[in-house]
Amino acid sequence: MSDDKAAPWHDAQTDFSTSMSYGDYLALDQLLSAQHPCSPDHNEMLFIVQHQTSELWMKLMLHELHAVRIRLQHNDLPPAFKMLARVARIMDQLVHAWDVLATMTPTEYSAIRPYLGSSSGFQSAQYREVEFILGNKNPALLAVHASHPVAHATLDAALHAPSIYDAAIALLAQAGFVIDTDRLASSTTLPTVANASVRQAWLAVYRDPAAYWALYELAEKLVDLETVFRTWRFRHATTVERIIGFKPGTGGTAGVSYLRKMLDVVLFPELFEMRTAL
Question: For the whole model, what pTM was predicted?
């Protein structure tokens, strides 16, 4: 005989008419309805979800990186270490995401490419902000976002704000290391350039880690982050080459050739240079 009243499932709540559900909390109706393929091809959903999830991870990265900079500026290093470790693990997620996109063959991508227009990951405002806050700044790239005033204003602020590495170098000076005045006061709108005084300071930290343990740990957290960031760039270039070869990018860049040049970008140059001298 059937019972009209549904039996409880392991005491789980089943009535959400007056309380917040999982879907409500995560706004899943909006999130899962934000995929709008432009082509009739089955594989476009992969392309959209890949990039949308990457943007979500980058949103979390920026949330953490902004907090890291504040902690460094207040010489509050232990929480900054935890946040930097988290950002590195987020980058791991983004690295492995290329494994999924790499299942798209050249033939499959060719079917959706005409529908992408001039849209390109090169136009990602969040990725550009990640680059800026890590010190790889380029004022000319603000023009890419001129048609989006909110994004442009956010990036302009990021361009003029100290990078995380600038904050780390300021801590070296606070610890008593002699850092060139022009490096401490250098324009924050330019990409990081290696400086001999900074290299010598990090070298001293690594030669006596017990005396400078907090700075030593900070340096290693930054190296961890840059290492996985380089891995992400490499996987990006190789995945694009696997799918489109050496065709130009949809956003007008040289495609793989451009991405390979980005492999030479070093975010924290002195931390890698001084290793040869140890």
Answer: 0.92
Q: Following CA atoms 256, 113, 93, 124 in sequence, which dihedral angle do they give, to the nearest 10 degrees?
A: 80
pLDDT tens per residue across span 138-178: 999 999 999 999 999 999 999 999 999 999 999 999 999 99
CATH assignment at residue 195 = 1.20.58.480
Residue 109 is assigned to a structural domain of this protein: yes
Distant-in-sequence, close-in-space partners of 33: CB < 8 Å, separation ≥ 6 = none
Which DSSP symbol is given to 17? Answer: S
Enumerate helices (H) and strands (E) in the chain, giving the number of each.
13, 0
- Quote the distance between the C-alpha of residue 234 and its chain's center: 14
The answer to whether 132 and 265 have CB atoms below 8 angstroms apart is no
Which residues are CB-neighbours of 143 under 8 A, at least 6 positions away?
A: none
Position 1 scores a pLDDT of 46
